[in-house]
Amino acid sequence: MSPRTVVVLGASGVGCRFALAANAAGHRVTLVDEHPQALKDMSIDAPYFYGAGLPAALNNANAIAQSFLEANPELMECLESGIDVRLSTILWGAFRNGENSIHIGTPKAGLVSREGNELLDHDVLVIASGVRDFVPSFLGWELPGVFGAKAGLALLDYYGVFEGERVLILGTSDIALRLMRSLRSKQITVAGVVEPGSSIAAGPEAAAWIEGEGIPVHFGKVIASAKGKVAVEGARLVTLDGTGSEEIACDSIAVAVATLPNVELPAAMGCGMRFSTELASWVPEVSIQGETSVDDVFYLAPKADEAMIEAMLARISGAARAEWQPSSLTLADASSYIQQWIKSLHQTGGPDVIMCQCESVTRGEFCHLEPPKYLGQGMRTSQTPTNQTDNPHAPRLDQDLVKRMTRVGMGHCQGKRCRDEAAFTLVQRFGIDAEDIRPGSYRFPLRPVDLSLIADDDETDDIRLNWQMWPYETRNA
Amino acid sequence: MQNYDLIVVGAGILGLATAYQARKAGAKVVVLDKGATAYEASSRATGYLSLRGETPEESPLAQMAEKLWDGLDEELGYPTEWTQRGRIWAAVNERELAELKELYQSFEKTDIAFEFVDGQALRKMIPSLTDSCLGGIHTPRSGHANPQRTSQAFAWAFTDLGGEIREYTPVLEVLATGGRVKGVKTPYGEIHAPRVALCAAAHNTLLLAPFGILFPLAPVRLEALVTTPMPPLFDQCFIGNGLSVRQTKRGNLHMNGGPYEWIDLEIDKESPKPTTPIVRNILRRAIETIPLLKGAQFLRSWAGIVDMAPDQMTTIHLFDNPEGLLTVAASGHGFGMAPAVGVAMADLALKGATSLPIEHLSLNRFRHITSDWREKRRWHAGQYNT
Questions:
Q1: Which of A81, A238, B17, B152 has the maximal Cβ count within 10 Å?
Q2: What interface predicted TM-score (ipTM) does this complex get?
């Protein structure tokens, strides 16, 4: 086997385990992860939804880096084994030759950190980009003290800077349980759990644990609003029919409805995608060796097991491509749980709640495709975004159209906060299946990047002198 | 089989403007597209109306377009973000200044208002412009708008009048019999109409080839990007240092420029439109041009496919044979031209003639072009930056 240059994106457990295995097999491995993030990047709420209440202790970058490493023994092992580990580094784009772009040369991964940017040549790209928070809108969700479960876990377990003392949990799925266990292990009070359904989504064992901890459960309710002037001081809950409500005192509201896979890289690279009801997300189509539809680009799902790591490594090391057979993972149905939350929140909260924080667009404005308020102009006739077509395989609705008209997903966070609620809102409003939506396009860069960091500072003469000035240089050709 | 007065092939801005005007004149019109509305060149456009000082043959039609742009929001009923604050074509070094002075001579062949101004005057118009700016051409009556909103405004105005758009419905073939157009063939059946308007950029070339007609268009992939919103910097169309840059109403800087990648198209398939690391070089030039952009963030990049004719000008042509067939493509000038193109195309389709100034824009100017023109020009698929 000839060693290959492998870039692994994502130093989660599975990413680290793969990197270690590939390194042990003799490949040259670079492991890239955006964590620990700069405070400015955390405020974009990607991948984790920290909200507006980031603890000041995060400013101490050295202490944060130290505790991040201490909390990740597998990452420490990667560092010790000689893997080229790039932390606090954003992979903003990945480029390889393909249809309509054949001048890239060796595949390139665009990396950017505080020090600047580089294009890293490599053979194989393994995407182990993990999951992010799903946070639906509700009144007051922009207040400091509202955060997603993954963000809460990062503050508690990676950085040790969690400041909340009384936390209300929205949702009862596995991620909610993980968060509650971490909170309780640090003697932080869980003020209650909110569940629109009538049972604990994570199952009876979880229900027994919650009961044993004495945590109050509010079945058949959702949050009506986060209360507080400058930060969360409480939450108002409401029954699904809107008749009953109660206030809960808390200083934090953790949205723990679901996590969704980070798929912006494979999607932006043009990997074939499919909608997974189980994961409530479009995900790359992969073979049982983890290979996507793009040669030498692999996707390691968050729940991938050791057998998958082995099969993927064998393929990278030269094993024949397995007959195409999509890998299958059976998980809980995240789509219906997410849809239940969105439906309940919209039904009780109405159309005037801000759905897109970056561009201040409400649910109602989004559904009616209204132009942004700063244009000061309306529409002659109200419109719907569904397609007319004779093509039975065509999407019935393009999320990009809705995005371009309403700007939901066009703001600073590029839809990291709102795009999933937006998609499921379209599903519910127009009565179509999620797989019949053409999801909003993902674009590079995967995170907003300072111009001063990404501008090319060692441009070649070839690019400099042969830059095309449309139109007249080519006219003279 | 369904019957219409006019089939428009291509739901980009030129097709939609044509369809809107034809529907407004009372015709029964359907627009067909292999993909979604405004997903190719119309999604990559910078959004400029240029008065075409650099291509005087196009200038009369561009000036017609300028008059129509002025009332377009009201006409269509949807905002386009039209901003008429002029265009600045600036030189940031001696080489560009020499080129601009040459270009200036072609502006003089037109009757549009323009002036050549020095660097100091340009910095007065755009205070954030680099000190190294030496001067440039100012065209006061140019303007810009939001390409996606404008295409959609035409689409909605058309459907509001009862027009029909069918997306993801590729046209595989134009049908003709006895020297007359009779409709089109799609994978889902035939659609019939006595007139067919091909407004599908370089797909026009593929659809016309079976008739022995050469419409010389070369598809090319180009890239665009936006930054995060900035405070108001300027509201003109800006060209200079190898970039086109406009600031949107929201405050984002929307720019494009840089290498061309020549490609081929397939008739029934949406083309991949990958972006490349060239965005780093675009951003470097942006900072060189407007130094305070160092404080902005790179937010989003995308690519689009533009069709180029050998002289990089608009073509509008009504064929005698087969009768009822007409076509348009605009070499990347379609966005600004669209309002006038729509009127001219609808006239040609429904009346067989137009009073709009298109006499220099017919296909006849390419009658000596041979089918290997792309190779000769080094514009064939796979060529980069030629």
A1: B17
A2: 0.95
